[in-house]
Write the structure tokens for this entry.
Amino acid sequence: EVIYKGQYLQAHGRGRVLADKSYTKRSQEVQSYTTAVYALLDKISLAKDNILDMNKERDLSLRRDLIDMELRLLEAEVGTLLSRGSALTLMLQHGNEQHGEQHGKQQRGNNEVQEDFCKDVEEKSNVLRDAWSDVKRQAEEEKSKVLNTSDLINFYKNTFREREEWIGRHKNIANMDEKL
């Protein structure tokens, strides 16, 4: 009996287990992954809406922090699920290769089903990756708007102070001229 130590070897061992699983088990694994992707896509959609709604927040630094928080809430979950999809694809491919070696070319139809599973998982992973990229892009745009707004506010405050100082200096000069 071989004892697997370390993460890579344990993952490889799980791959071998999935390769030995029946069609139903593989189908359930793919369905479970698909369900998880759809649930996360719903969360990403909600996050996009939340990011857009943050424009109502008047405190600019708080708005930027809220956008960052919204992203951090999803970042780990997206990474984990994408990793799960990659592992599932590799396991399905590995199972496909083993199954083909064991049963020869007689099981061609079964291999096509396994390839369909792989394509389905890869497709869902790509959709998730695209949605995640889109929400990150949107968040960066919103944070950029916050920084631009903050810069404009600082510019106008400085301009106002400079004008007040100028008026104050010229008011004193005007008062002196009146006294003369």
User: Anything to note?
Assistant: Confidence is low (pLDDT under 50) at residues 1-20. Residues 108-179 form the longest helix (72 residues). The two ends are 108 Å apart (CA to CA).
